[in-house]
Amino acid sequence: MGQREFFDRMAETWDRVCQHDPGKIIEILDMVDLRPGDAILDVGTGTGILIPFLLPRIGPNGAITAIDISENMIAVARRKCRSDAVEFMVGDVLTTELPPASFDAVICYSVFPHFNDKEQSIARLGSYLKPGGELVVCHSQSRDEINQRHKSAGAEVASDNLPDASEIVRYFVLTGIGPKSIIDDERMFVVVGRKPGA
Ligand SMILES: C[S@@+](CC[C@H](N)C(=O)[O-])C[C@H]1O[C@@H](n2cnc3c(N)ncnc32)[C@H](O)[C@@H]1O
Predict the structure, then answer these.
(1) Stated pTM of the model
(2) Ligand 1 site: residues with CB under 6 angstroms?
(3) Is the torsion defined by CA of 25, 15, 50, 40 positive or negative?
C-alpha cells in the first residue's frame, strides 16, 4: 500500500482520530500575513481542517485552493464545506500544474514530512507564491512528537521525517525565500518564510 492509499483508508475516521487544538491553529495562522481577498493554497488539506479557520481571514473575496493526493480525504473535506470560495483538487501538489506566482500564502499544515525531496518541494511550493507571499511549514505538535508519531503509524509513513527548523530555513534561502518567523518548541512547530517583492 502506498501513501495515497494509506490516507484514503484513514479519511472517514480522520476527524475522530486526529484532534486539532483550535487555539494552536489560531496561533499559527496569526503568524502569517493573511488579508481579505487573499488566495491561499492549503497543501495536503486532508479533511479540510484549516478551512474554517482560513475563511474568516480572507473574507468574501478570498479564495482557497485545497489540494490533497487522497481522493477520500477530499471527499470528506468537500462534504463538510459550505463555501464557494474553496476549490478542491485531488492531486500531488508537487506534480500538479498550478499557476506560478498566484498565491498570497502556501500553507503546509501537517504535510511537509510526507514529501520525499524536501529541498525540491520547497522550491516548487515557493514558485506558486506571488512576490511578497508567504510559505508556511507548520504542525500543532512538537517536532519530536511528529517524528515519533510517524514511526509508529505504519510502514507507509514510518520514515517521513520533519527536519529541524534550520534545515527548512536553508531550503527557503536556497529558493530565495527569506525566513520570517519560527517556533520550534514542545507545543508546536512553525516556520514562516516570505518571498521578496511587493
Ligand atoms: C497527516 S495528513 C494531514 C491532513 C490535514 N492537513 C490535517 O492536518 O488534518 C497529510 C495529508 O497530506 C496529503 N498529502 C501527502 N503528500 C501529498 C502531496 N504530495 N500532495 C498533496 N497532498 C499530499 C495526504 O493525503 C494527507 O491527507
Answers:
(1) 0.97
(2) 7, 18, 44-47, 49, 67-70, 73, 92-94, 109-111, 114
(3) positive
What is the rounded distance in angstroms from the CA atom of residue 111 to the CA atom of residue 174? 21
Q: Characterize the bridge pairing of strands 189-194 and 129-139.
A: antiparallel
CB-neighbour burial class of residue 165 (10 A; exposed 0-12, middle 13-18, buried 19+): middle
Residue with the smallest CA separation from ligand 1 atom 23 is 44
Largest CA distance in the chain: 44
Which numbered atom of ligand 1 lies nearest the CA of 45?
6
Task: Please give the full DSSP string across 90-137, using - where no structure is assigned.
Answer: ES-TTTS---TT-EEEEEEES-GGG-SSHHHHHHHHHHTEEEEEEEEE
Q: Whose CA is nearest to atom 6 of ligand 1?
A: 45
Alpha helices in the chain (DSSP H): 3-10, 14-17, 22-30, 51-58, 71-80, 118-127, 143-153, 165-174
CATH H superfamily, domain 3-194: Vaccinia Virus protein VP39 (3.40.50.150)
Express each pLDDT in 57-66 by its tens digit. Answer: 999 999 999 9
Write down the pLDDT at residue 149: 84
Q: What is the dihedral of CA 48, 49, 55, 57, to 10 degrees?
A: -140
Question: What's the 109 CA to ligand 1 centre distance in angstroms?
Answer: 8
Cβ atoms 74, 90 nearer than 8 A: yes
